[in-house]
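Incident log, structure service

09:12 report received: a user says their structure output differs between two submissions of the same chain.
09:20 pulled the input from the user's history:
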Amino acid sequence: MKILITGGAGFIGSNFAHFLVENQKGWDITILDKLTYAGKWRNLKGIENEIRFVQGDINDDDLVSELISQNEYIVNFAAETFVDRSIESDAPFIETNIKGTWNLLKNCKENNVKKFIQISTDEVYGSIREGSFTEEDALKPNNPYSASKAAADMLCRAYRVTHGVPTIIIRPSNNFGSRQHTEKLIPKLITRAMKGLSLPVYSDGSNVRDWIYVYDTCRGIYKVLMEARVGDIYNLGGSSELSNLEVGKMILDELGKPYSLIEFVKDRPGHDFRYSMDSSKIRKLGWKPVYSFREGLRETIDWYVNEEKQVI
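09:34 re-ran on a clean worker, output below:
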């Protein structure tokens, strides 16, 4: 199988590359990554000789055309993903998440691609106080990041319906695990707690996220890659809903640090209160999480403790 992983040096993309190398010998794996601040060559340490790496931008039409013509399957992880950054400056999110996805789809239309898997996010649905979103619910994004991802989802649908591009959309809940940039909540809290620094938590810490360990996400993406029908959309939730304050306290407990390190800070604009998705559709394919939140958290903490070059 010939597969192109875009954004494959980022957090989830690099973990998926490691997953494929460990579980599918003989696959022809190409990784395209721009190597921005969040995409690091060192995330591919240990599998360098098992992949082909190309440094480049998904908006580079000639490069994308060449790479897609050489591959049967495309998994698109390439994206700007940090909500806070999108609030400060949304232009990079429009450029990568919308225009970049469009460039990939345009080139898939012109080549014999068997599946194009778009990695989306639960944030496209917006916030929900009670119950859980299904794949049939309307998209109501509330920040520039999630709006750009919703736009990319709509492009995937349009290119499938109009041009026959074989798209599938996966919407994971909040991921955590090794190789995640320390601007994100869990690695930020871990690395700061390790040094005895304050743990910044928005507002009163009551905002709720459904957490999924990245290994389970990789398993879900692989299941969809191998078995899902073209045109389908899958929610990929971890069934681990926790408030940000609960997450902070669990990290402090694991590291033996006092709760007094938690520092409540001014809330960000448009902060979604709760994300929750119904993942029964992908469970019908035979997937379910194998890691509890605490098990995944312990492995994540161990990874960051053993890392020598993490930067807060």
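09:41 both user submissions now match this output. Likely a transient worker issue. Closing.
09:42 reviewer note: DSSP finds ten helices and twelve strands in the chain. The two ends are 39 Å apart (CA to CA).
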